[in-house]
Amino acid sequence: MIRLSLLSMFASIGLMMTVAPAIAGEHVFYHENVLGTAFELRVEAVDETAARAAETRALAEIDRLAAILSGYDAKSEFRRWMETSHVPTRVSPELFEILQSCDAWTSRTHGAFDPRVQALTALWTRTSKENRVPTATELADARKLMSEPAWKLDSSARTAERLTACPLSFNSIGKGYIIGKATAAAFDPNQGVRGVLLNIGGDLRLAGTMSKRIGIANPFGDSETTEPVTRIEVKEKSVATSGNYQRGWTIAGQWYSHIFDPRTGQPATRAVSATVIADKAPLANVLATTLCVLPVEEGLALIRSVEGAECLLITADGQTHRSAGFARYERPRVSLVSRVVADDAKDAWNKDYELAINFEISPPEGESRRYRRPYVAVWIEDKDGLAVRTLALYLQTRQPGPRWHPDLKRWYRTDQVRKLVDETDLIATVSRATRPAGKYDVIWDGKDDKGKPVAAGEYTVYIEAAREHGTYQLIRKQVTLADRPFAEELKGNVEIKSASVAFRRKDARK
Q: Can you tell me the distance from the alpha carbon of 171 to that of 168, in angstroms, rounded to the nearest whole number?
């Protein structure tokens, strides 16, 4: 599996595109396990042939650059260069550009961004397996190793000389670099492509005519169905979000972020989420990571110094901080159906509770690299078998053609269910911290598709999956929802590797 080492330590934005009607000429392609996370490509093109050619170009460019920059592939150019010592080595233009950019941003941020932080990631990963935090001596040793220059560059010869044994990671900058290059490869007006949105694990870049609304995830309750803290609309821009709420370690019952302050050796705690809008993808990613490390005012000052950059910061106490121009990208929620605002019914379940549903998509047998995501629907039915709420719907749409796919047999079976979804913004485009490939979670807040609280009682959770040219699977679980918490693992199948349900207090989240 080819992944960048940056993904082991960096929580960048995670994006789930809306299941709203695709505009004419828009084609959507999904894959799992691209750079260790989810891949989504939206293409505005003259026809499907042009769109599929854009998909091919994007994936080919990702593969080409991963072979240069991957920290997991022992055969990558980066890994091979890491094995050298005190030998000036001629490297590719791409690797040299990344090394130069790392030098520039380490200097500009006074060490808040530093690729040598991989030494801390390695240390905390090791000690977390022993259920302990690093000792003061271990941290001092890591910081000493990080204090030494890691490389020396010669621009005229395009050589890079490795100077220490300090572990390195390109963090967000490498992933952003790949996204930018792959977007450029996909967007080709001469081949019938008018616009492109590329999303890898939530880091995204838009080019051409493509314009999208994107929700910024709530870091205190991130789920595919959680209401975003705000929405932005962008075109010809890059967006990245870094945060401490998806990746990290639980040690002795306490959560520690995988984002570190390279200057102290400690997990970053100032911002729980940092979203950046910028002209270039590598820039957005670097800034988002750095803003999680810097104090708020220093972070806002850094953004002011970068032309075209704006940000939204959310701190651990729940406060939000916007750069001066961020608000001009913000948009109100637009709903195509009036949501019912109602007081809790007398027989409604306890409003302090929620139902969490987690599932992991299985790769096809024999697949170790990227694979196409199956169609998946997650919804709730009442004790009479009537649909109450569709929570998630993942389809690979094609134009021209039907919007919903009948391979999801039970979900598709009634016009009532599909019409409810047709009339509402089911899953907003959301910017969130990156998740591992194939892992998703949704939360039911106890309301139906029109926003009305439902009664406590018996319901059935359905997870349905169908893979094109593959198998069909259905998981169902009857649950009683009132005010008694429970958690249960569900048996997986060919398409859904694992699943679980948990009825819990909202304050019981991680």
A: 9
In degrees rounded to 5, what are phi and psi of residue 141?
Answer: -65, -40
Cis peptide bond upstream of 400, omega within 30: yes
Q: Determine the 3-state secondary structure of 357 from DSSP.
A: strand
Q: How, if at all, do strands 430-433 and 211-216 pair?
A: parallel
Residue 340, pLDDT > 80, answer no
Residue whose tokens read 């050796």: 265
Q: Tell me the CA end-to-end span of the chain in Å, nearest whole number.
A: 29
For 353-508, the fitting CATH number among 2.60.40, 3.30.310, 3.20.20, 2.40.128 is 2.60.40
Helix (H) or strand (E) holding 373: none
- Name the burial class of residue 149, with classes exposed (0-12), middle (13-18) and buried (19+) by CB atoms within 10 angstroms of its CB: exposed
Segment 472-487 mean pLDDT:
91
Do residues 430 and 16 touch, judged by C-beta distance below 8 A? yes
Query: What are the structure tokens assigned to 394, written together?
Result: 């993942």
Q: What is the Cα–Cα distance from 299 to 281, expressed in whole angstroms?
A: 18
474 SS3 class: strand
Closest to 462 in 3D by CA, of 356, 379, 376:
379
Amino acid at 510: K
- Scan for tokens 């979000």, then name that residue: 241
**Tokens standing for 52?**
């599929």
Between 281-291 and 93-108, two packed helices, what is the crossing angle to 10 degrees?
40
0.70 exceeded by pTM: yes
Residues β-bridged to residue 444:
355
pLDDT digits (tens, 9 = 90+) for 183-236: 999 999 999 999 999 999 888 999 999 999 888 888 887 666 677 889 999 999
* Cα 31-35-39 angle, rounded to 5 deg: 30
The domain spans of the chain are 353-508
In terms of Cα–Cα distance, which of 370, 371, 497, 366 is closest to 3?
A: 370
DSSP code, position 51:
H
Distance CA 117, CA 108 (A): 16
